[in-house]
Design brief:
Elements (H helix, E strand, L loop, with lengths): L2 H17 L7 H6 L13 E5 L1 E2 L5 E5 L5 E14 L2 E10 L2 E6 L13 E3 L2 E4 L2 E5 L45
Antiparallel strand pairs: 1-9, 2-4, 3-4, 4-5, 5-6, 6-7, 8-9
């Protein structure tokens, strides 16, 4: 995705958060909401990766932020580099598609502590488009009323992924 498309997508998301009854914000939060916080676009973290599918698509259970459980299948793994450091992540699948939860070295300081999400785009031949510039916070980052899958240990990286959404900031943020 080019920078103009990314910035337009971010603007649309800000408008959704500000005005939609379906946004994760309360009406009180929406009244003072101005925008989400993002890293500057980073073309080095807009990747096409080759995923090594697992021989057996084992079912796994993720704990959620509210103590519930969600089931996924471990689909496959891919390797990549960030600032010269090796990293490896697992992609999961459910009936709705592919899911990539991850937490990195910025979690809890610059980004949401429980991690961020992506929906990798299938390109065919075990290739996926993984654009970390589109990494987003789960809705539980904005309100504890939401139930969000927590990032599994295998997707907690030691490297920093400085792309996508940052920690929410501003008067509208619910303190808890």
């Amino acid at each position: 995705m080019n920078v103009d498309q990314l910035l337009a997508l971010r603007q649309e998301k800000d408008e959704f958060f500000k005005a939609s009854a379906y946004a994760p914000l309360s009406p009180e939060q929406q009244a003072t909401f101005d925008r989400l916080a993002y890293y500057e676009p980073n073309p080095d973290l807009d990747l096409v990766v080759t995923v090594e599918p697992f021989a057996e698509l084992a079912e796994v259970t993720f704990e959620t932020s509210t103590g519930d459980q969600r089931r996924y299948r471990r689909y496959g793994q891919f390797s990549f580099q960030v600032d010269g450091q090796d990293a490896r992540l697992t992609i999961y699948a459910d009936p709705n598609g592919f899911f990539l939860p991850f937490a990195d070295a910025t979690a809890g300081t610059e980004t949401y502590g429980a991690g961020r999400y992506l929906e990798p785009e299938v390109l065919g031949d075990n290739r996926f488009h993984v654009d970390f510039n589109q990494a987003y916070n789960p809705y539980c980052a904005y309100s504890p009323a939401w139930s969000c899958p927590l990032t599994p240990p295998e997707n907690r990286l030691k490297v920093a992924i400085r792309a996508g959404e940052k920690l929410p900031e501003g008067e509208w943020v619910e303190k808890g």
